[in-house]
Amino acid sequence: METEIKAEKKKLEAQLAEISTNSSRNPGENTASFPNFGDAEDENAAEVTTFSNNLTLERTLETGLRDADKALASIADGKYGICKYCHKEIDEKRLRARPTSSSCIDCKKKLTLES
Question: Which of 14, 40, 56, 61 is the most buried (most CB within 10 A)?
Fold first, then answer.
């Protein structure tokens, strides 16, 4: 799984680099780039729409990167595949579907129902 997680992390970093730059004020954080399509009114509207979409995508990609980093840390600690809530093993099928999972299906269902 480590290889898959590292590959996913690399892909997420590349996608993030396409729409943002590293924050100079907060290392490890990114700032979505504001596109420049031109000065016409419709181009300005497209810039705002694209920027808004990029902000949402940036948050999603950053979350994915954090999950990948946590999964890699749990591999290094020998705790990979153990649910952080009930401390039971996470089913292999779940880890294959989502290698960065930190919770078993039962705990995830409980958390989703409580939200």
Answer: 61
